[in-house]
Design goal:
Elements (H helix, E strand, L loop, with lengths): L5 E2 H10 L6 H11 L6 E2 L1 H10 L9 H7 L2
Antiparallel strand pairs: 1-2
Amino acid sequence: LMDLDIHIDELTIALKKTGAKVTNEDIVKLMTEIDVDQDGELDIDEFCSLMSLGGQMNFKDSKNVGTFSKI
């Protein structure tokens, strides 16, 4: 069985490899908002929701809109 969950460390590595100009603090804040069940990982449903919402996502912290837009 494949593990499809994305841990915050994996997300950080992926974002930095894409050249996204985000800090580790930005990523932690973003992860806090998009990790609905707060288990420290993005499951496939959380990831798909994030990607489908794109710029329409309602973030609790408005700074996370800027972080998300850099991805």
